[in-house]
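Readers outside the structure-tokenisation community will struggle with the description of the input data as it stands. I therefore recommend that a typical entry be quoted early in the introduction. An entry of this sort, consisting of the sequence and the corresponding backbone structure tokens, reads as follows:
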Amino acid sequence: MRESVDDPIGVTKPWRVAVVECRGSCYDVGVQTAKGFSNSPRGRTFKHRRGRGRYGFSLKNAQVALVTYAPNIWEELHGLADGLEIPFETAVMRYSNGRLPYPAYGCSSLSTADLFGRNYDYSVGKYDSMLLAIQPKGVNASVGFSDRFTGRVDGMNEHGLCVALHLVNQSKSWRPGLGCILTVRIVLDQCATTAEAVKLLKRLPHGLSFSYSLKDAKGVGAVVEASSLEVVVREGGNLACTNHFQTKKLQMFNRRSAWTTSAYLHLRPGPKRGSLPKSCLAR
């Protein structure tokens, strides 16, 4: 995996992850997740970090959203807070559905009749570096890469349903709704097929513009292009999903990539990398 856009193509560095298995009640899963993290290199430095409050965070609003759409995660957060030895409100603020900042994801996926694959195109420093295999009571068992403990960037559940997220825009399109990593987790927890996932994704309120690629055990695939104003589904045997909406009516939500611009800035005369004018940044 390339560490960043500055690394030459073809140069890879080791990427180590903690593999954590959790079983039991949703509370137990939260505690076990915290303990597994505490035993990882990042976890051993966790207590020395100082977190910041999230702009616009409301514990009451977070509770309403989670109790409505993902009550199991609300219970899991209680266990996570106890396992990390932090106040419950802090756990909800940092690891649930607050206005969380997301890195400039650049992930892509490809789906055919026999294949579903995706990549990661941003610095490994942005990952939780945890692969979580969970079997909570009351929802589907699943395995996937963690993001803020309760969220997932992708995964597969016990029914063979796969889902991955792809950032489109998070600058101007924010509305009250669910975060992307929480949305992936809800799909894994509650759905068994692509049809069920599509139906759920149409019903959920989306806070930002993301695409979700899907594939189930029967080989049925779809890409759900979800903005805060409208959700459109692309279906077919061969599907590709990158970081822009392909549906014409949603293309107004697409962004100019500051990440791509900064990656190649050193190839031409002009301001040094890191001093991009505001007009060049993604909006």
Q: What stands out?
A: The helical segments are 26-38, 41-44, 59-69, 71-84, 88-95, 180-190, 194-203, 258-263. DSSP finds eight helices and twelve strands in the chain.
